[in-house]
Amino acid sequence: MADGSNTLRIPANSDSAPASPQMEKPEPGIEAAPPEQQSASVSTPAAAPATPKRSRKRAVLFTLLPLALIVGGYFYVTGGQVMSTDNAYIQADMVGISTDVSGIVQNINVHDNQQVKQGDILFRLDPAVYSIALAGAKAQLGVVRNQILNLEASYKQSLAEITQAEADIPFFQKTLQRQQDLIASASASKATFDQAKHDLDAAQQKVDVAKAEAAATLAQLGGNADLPVEQNPSYLNAQSAVDNAQRNFDRTIVRAPFDGIVTNVSSLQVGSYLQASQAGFSLVSTTHMWIAASPKETELTYVREGQPVAISVDTYPGTEWKGTVASISPASGSSFALLPAQNTTGNWVKVVQRIPMLVSIDDMAGKPPLRVGMSVDIGVDTGHARGLPKFVDGLFGGR
């Protein structure tokens, strides 16, 4: 600390005016800084505003942090109603194109990955064998028709013979009675009487034979002589043979059962022999497609059939399809395995199971084409929010 004598001291080589004692006197408790520190202290006033800026940042952080917690908590409580999974793939109707008749492939009308419509001709088999069989069946149908017509004529003739024979019986009965009266009066011989009796018996026998023939003919006519030829059992049997031959002939032309895209056409070649029910190539539907998803069992808590689904395909980012939960499998996917898991001895490692689920695609029109096997992400709107955690709900008396 400087005393009073120090304030009256005047430097010998000072050219400037003497400083005021009050200006020279340092503040109590503060020592004079060295010249180096004094020169550095010139920049100190420029850093003085840093303290208010830091205070403002701190205030902003203290304001935003609770706000962020509130907003985050709101979205947590009101969110969670969408069940999403990426374990989902496009599926479609697929069928091996075949026919139930055998034959040599005559021509193929399509090529690999060609789009076809229902009813389009895909390929043909050589129809020669089936054409011959069809002609034979039609000829046999004509023979049966003629036979039925002959039977009808024969039946009518038998009825006429019966009528004629029955009309002759009264005459022979009267002749026999007359001869019997003559014998009683000894006016006729025994031989004449026997002849009259024989004629009556023959007439009665003729009636019986005609009735038997008529019955047999009627049986061949199906028990109804007035039945139309086309309804006769024999005719129907022959007609079925024609229909079967016609069907086999028609099956030599193989058509598309539904709209789709043909694939693996190169596996079928012209001139090769195709066995009945042997697939020539495949057809994949482009109209009846769905999504086979396998979400975890813990994700299906609030998923129900009929809930709306948002669908995005990895191949087409930015494009969204709409769908509906069509069905949920009654068992996990592993339950249908060839050797399903047996946990009767204890489940030492608990594995979350996946439950197959089918999602229908509602708006395929006007969207990019989908292919079987494409990976998709689905989001099912369950309509059930996550809500407060259990421990928080318990604090407020929730159940």
Tell me the layout of helices and strands.
Blueprint: H1 4-7, H2 21-24, H3 35-40, H4 50-78, E1 82-97, E2 103-108, E3 115-116, E4 121-125, H5 128-184, H6 190-220, H7 233-250, E5 253-255, E6 260-263, E7 273-274, E8 281-293, E9 308-313, E10 320-328, E11 357-361, E12 375-381, H8 390-395
Antiparallel strand pairs: 1-8, 1-12, 2-4, 2-7, 3-6, 4-5, 6-8, 8-11, 9-10, 9-12, 10-11
Helix pairs in contact: 5-6, 5-7
Give a written overview of the molecule.
The protein has 399 residues and is of the alpha+beta class. The protein folds into 3 domains: 82-93 and 287-334 and 352-394, Efflux pump adaptor protein, beta barrel domain (Elongation Factor Tu (Ef-tu), domain 3, Beta Barrel), CATH 2.40.30; 94-128 and 252-282, RNA polymerase II/Efflux pump adaptor protein, barrel-sandwich hybrid domain (OB fold (Dihydrolipoamide Acetyltransferase, E2P)); 130-246. Helix content is 39%, strand content 20%. It has 8 helices and 12 strands. The protein has helices at residues 4-7, 21-24, 35-40, 50-78, 128-184, 190-220, 233-250, 390-395; strands at 82-97, 103-108, 115-116, 121-125, 253-255, 260-263, 273-274, 281-293, 308-313, 320-328, 357-361, 375-381. The strands form 2 sheets. The chain has a 6-stranded antiparallel barrel with strand order 1-8-11-10-9-12. It has a 4-stranded antiparallel sheet with strand order 5-4-2-7, with no helix packed on it. The model is unreliable at 1-31 and 35-47 (pLDDT under 50).
